[in-house]
Amino acid sequence: MSEAPETSQELSEVLEDLRRHLLWQEEDGGRFLQVDARLAAELRGAGLARLRAQAQAAKPASSVAAQPAPAAPQPAPAARPMAPRAPAPEPERPLAARAPEAAPVRREAPVARPLEAPAQARPAAGPLPGVVEGERPTLDEIRRELGDCRRCKLCDGRKNIVFGSGNPRAELVFVGEGPGADEDAQGVPFVGAAGQLLTKMIEAMGYRRDDVYICNVVKCRPPNNRNPEPDEVTACEPFLRAQLRAVQPKVIVALGKFAAQTLLRDTTAITKMRGNWREYEGIKLMPTFHPAYLLRQPAEKKKAWEDLQQVMKFFGKQPGQRG
């Protein structure tokens, strides 16, 4: 082991470098001792690794071949002696003083937004302020609550509010879409060309107009007879529902898609809904075509008549029979 003195000499040089470095740190106030302690450990590790490597090289070749030594860690590059009071590198701050790392951003799967539901799929309208919940109102009370309605933009172009007409205790109610020009002028539902056809349909079922009750989803005429818009239906719907609660019929005939879809909360096309019994708050409901549609499509009158015959059968009536 002739190289042991040399090895000891090299270790002494490494430790001397470390001692000088620590002395310089003490002179500078000991501000970076935590970092230098780590550096000292690295320097010591480098020196010990060098000693082990040299000792291994001094062993006989046969001993090395018989028992291979584990791979020694790569020695760290020798640290240069540092001049006193030389500018020190920025030290690593203690863990307690480090700024907290930004929390990893969690990327959640995008949630699909449901499409905006049509006006007919809205939640049920609440009770009217002037009507006691759970009690049967009168049509007069509902009309007073409606007042000179300004609840939607339809009020700007109307001439008259078209509330409803007929028997306030009717067993059969017809619900349409909205007033036309003639209805707006007279303030009475279904008095124009579509209304004349509806009157013939009612009479063919064995009723008179005064026997039934007739009203619309919206009470004011949409400009140019366009379809009611969702906000207009929302504003008027509580009054329609209050009217049905006041009359309490046995059957409702919903004329056209707006009446059927609004009452049933169902966006199915009227061509698929018609002719099939449905139910509205415990009341039987028959969807069918609107008389205005039948004027444009006379061939569909046969289907509408089949729908009305089911209503007649429910009441035990025969075509043309009065009672």
UniProtKB/TrEMBL annotation:
Residues 52-69 have a biased composition (Low complexity). It catalyses: Hydrolyzes single-stranded DNA or mismatched double-stranded DNA and polynucleotides, releasing free uracil. It comes from Archangium gephyra. Residues 70-89 have a biased composition (Pro residues). SUPFAM superfamilies: Uracil-DNA glycosylase-like (SSF52141). Its EC number is 3.2.2.27. It holds the Pfam family UDG. This is Type-4 uracil-DNA glycosylase. The keyword Metal-binding applies.
